[in-house]
Amino acid sequence: MAAVPIVRVRDLFKIYRQGDLDVVALNGVSIDIEPREFVVLMGPSGSGKSTLLHIVAGIDRATRGAVSVQGIDVAALNESQLADWRNQNVGFVFQTFNLIPVLTARENVELPLLLTRMRGDERRRQVETALRLVGLDDRMHHRPDQLSGGQQQRVAIARALVTDPALIVADEPTGNLDAKSAADVLSILRILARDSGKTVIMVTHDPKAAAYGTRSLHLEKGEIVA
Amino acid sequence: MNLLGFIARNALRNRRRVLLTVSSVAVSCGVLVTLQTLQRELTVPPESEGASLRVIARNKVSIAQPLPARQLAVIERIPGIVAVSPFTFFGGLYADEKATGFAQFGIDPERFRGIMVEGRIVAGDYEGFVADRNGCMVGSDTVERYKLKVGDHMRFTGTFYPVDLDLRISAVFKGTVDDRGVFFHHKLLDAATDGGGTVGTWYMRVESAGVAPRVIAAVDKAFENSSAEVRTETERAFQMGFMSMLGDVKALTLSVSSVVVFTLMLVTMSTMSMAIRERFRELAVLKALGFRRRELFSFILAESFGLSFAGAVLGIAGTWLFWSSINLQKLTAGFLIYFEVTPRIMAMAGVVAALLGIVSAIAPAVAVARMSVVDGLKTID
Ligand SMILES: Nc1ncnc2c1ncn2[C@@H]1O[C@H](COP(=O)(O)OP(=O)(O)OP(=O)(O)O)[C@@H](O)[C@H]1O
Ligand SMILES: [Mg+2]
């Protein structure tokens, strides 16, 4: 029995105009991703992996084609609706961690919750749960510069899951990490998909990282090849 | 942490920048407040109802030349004049001061009654002043400044006049445009100068503002071709004439103030745009996390406003403290007695700084609103 797809991409095009030249970043991509899948996007540099991820996560817009997430037509939302939608439904993990340097681990994780109506004590509980999940509840009061790269990325994952979104997107999350830290981060992502019911889409160049996923998709020149 | 805490943390993240911004806003506000106060002190106090009804006649040659006392009889007969009194600047030094910051005038108390109408007696009584030949009437500011009370003596050493005065306070007045002066019986001067015969100026009150021009012309005309020709003008014109000696203070302070404000604007604008450019990528991350334009806009606005406001509060309060603690009279040898930083001036400087804070937030805020998350994330920090 096929589950209802959580992410549905149909005939997606992204074309950048550069002077007289059209750069086709996505050339008619169609995919379905089901809940609890851990999808790994692979492909050569410039093949459109990040572009696809950005459009699905609602931080970029397609030139043509349809994207729906949990049945919501993302392209139809205006800027402010899209921001709210991202806050509630998408968690982001970036290659370069992107934590706010002046905030402690706990405060970084709390950030997305500041946009919700959640009360202070409830936020705190939520933050602590997320940090415990990534194994950093003993580093709550450390600032990013007092944490290793792997720890920073785990804080970033805690930040991505603290609002309990259905979808977590990660663009080369292990690209800046050593093998041990990378393995920690990948294990956490796998647990999130397998045990916490999240759907994870991860871009990676690393075949070892790809082994953590439940499915791999290959992009080449803006098209899915496998 | 809440949103305000987050804004504060961001605003304070670069200590050196905060220090520089806050202190440049503070210094500029201090300069602004000082300039505006200076201008206010040097320009004529606000025109009072009474000032337009008062007319002063002085020697046409120079204000330092006395006028013959016998002119009184002529002036009194000019229609439209309600009251006239001699009004002679004594210019004495109070107690053992080297410079005294309030003026003393010899007047005729009986006649003067009808001239200074807007003041009121707040201690002692006017009749006591009239009755006591050595009595004086003192402005409430001076009384407060020197902690005096009715019955106390005030001793003055003459500078122009070869006489020292020992006056006893009969009355204290308040509510004129300048509550500093000391008024005493002109008789004391007459006695000191061979039984009198001269006065400094004539101080008159006319029936209405409408007749003032006619009265002025009539007084001037009455002494035309006499040994002591007079120049008559309203009290306001008289003060303005005094002012012209100081040059165009208003234009000067205005232009310097504009330069200060303009420079301050450049400082706050470049600081803010630098602060935001440094954080472009972080702001893109915030956008990705679901922060909307209006939230980012208010972060930037709050930060810019907060820094300017902090600078303004420091600068204005500091300036106020500074000017109220130093002895300006001593410093300027009596040229400036009061240097009152008024709430109005402080509010003005505060508003200027706050506006600059807001204006400086606009360009960075617009840039952040326009930035796409993807482009913002690509920024290298
Ligand atoms: N703002 C842009 N303007 C023009 N072309 C762009 C822009 N952004 C991306 N592209 C182009 O779109 C294509 C896909 O880019 P994308 O970033 O999705 O690749 P990628 O698969 O993530 O590559 P990498 O593995 O190097 O991260 C590339 O050819 C790139 O040059
Ligand atoms: Mg990429």
Short description:
Chain A is an alpha/beta fold and 226 residues long. Chain A has a single domain, classed as P-loop containing nucleotide triphosphate hydrolases (Rossmann fold). Chain A is built from 7 helices and 10 strands.
Q: What string gives the helices and strands of chain A in order?
A: EEEHEEHEHHHEHEHEE
Q: What is the averaged pLDDT score of chain B?
A: 87
Low-confidence stretches of chain B: none
Multimer state:
heterodimer
Q: How many distinct beta strands of chain A?
A: 10
Radius of gyration of chain A: 17 Å
Quote the CATH topology of chain A.
Rossmann fold
Straight-line N-to-C gap of chain B:
25 Å
Q: Describe the biggest sheet of chain A?
A: 6 strands, mixed
Uncertain stretches of chain A: none
Shape category of chain B: elongated
Strand order of the largest sheet of chain A: 6-7-8-3-9-10
Which CATH class of chain A?
A: Alpha Beta
Secondary structural class of chain B: alpha+beta
* Helical content class of chain A: 25-40%
- Encode the helix/strand succession of chain B as letters: HHHEEHEEEHEHEHEEEHEEHEHHHHHHH
Which ligands are bound?
adenosine-5'-triphosphate, magnesium ion
Count of runs of 4 or more consecutive helical residues of chain B = 16
Which CATH architecture of chain A?
3-Layer(aba) Sandwich
The number of helical runs of chain A is 7
Describe the structure.
The complex is a heterodimer of chains A (226) and B (381). Chain A has 7 helices and 10 strands. Chain A has 226 residues and is α/β, with parallel strands linked by helices. Chain A has one domain: P-loop containing nucleotide triphosphate hydrolases (Rossmann fold, 3-Layer(aba) Sandwich), CATH 3.40.50. In chain A, the strands form 2 sheets. In chain A, strands 6-7-8-3-9-10 form a 6-stranded mixed sheet. In chain A, a hairpin with a 2-residue loop joins strand 9 and strand 10. In chain A, helix 5 packs parallel to helix 6 (179-195). The longest helix of chain A is centred in the C-terminal third of the chain and has 17 residues, at 179-195. Chain A is globular, with a radius of gyration of 17 Å. The two termini of chain A are 22 Å apart. The model of chain A has no long low-confidence stretch (mean pLDDT 94). In chain B, strands 1, 3, 4, 5, 6, 7, 8, 9, 10, 12 and 13 form an 11-stranded mixed sheet that branches. By secondary structure, chain B is an alpha+beta fold. In chain B, strand 8 (153-157) and strand 9 form a beta hairpin. Helix content of chain B is 52%, strand content 17%. Chain B has helices at 3-11, 15-42, 49-53, 71-76, 109-112, 126-131, 140-145, 187-192, 212-222, 235-243, 249-277, 280-289, 293-325, 328-331, 343-370, 373-378; strands spanning 54-59, 67-68, 81-89, 93-94, 104-107, 120-124, 135-139, 153-157, 165-174, 182-185, 198-199, 201-206, 230-234. Chain B has 16 helices and 13 strands. Chain B has 2 domains: 3-46 and 247-378, no CATH class; 61-228, no CATH class. Chain A binds chain B through residues 54, 57, 59-60, 79-80, 83-88, 92, 94, 98, 100-103, 107, 110-112, 114-115, 120, 159, and chain B through 1-3, 6, 9-10, 13, 281-282, 285-295, 372-374, 377. The structure holds adenosine-5'-triphosphate (ATP) and magnesium ion.
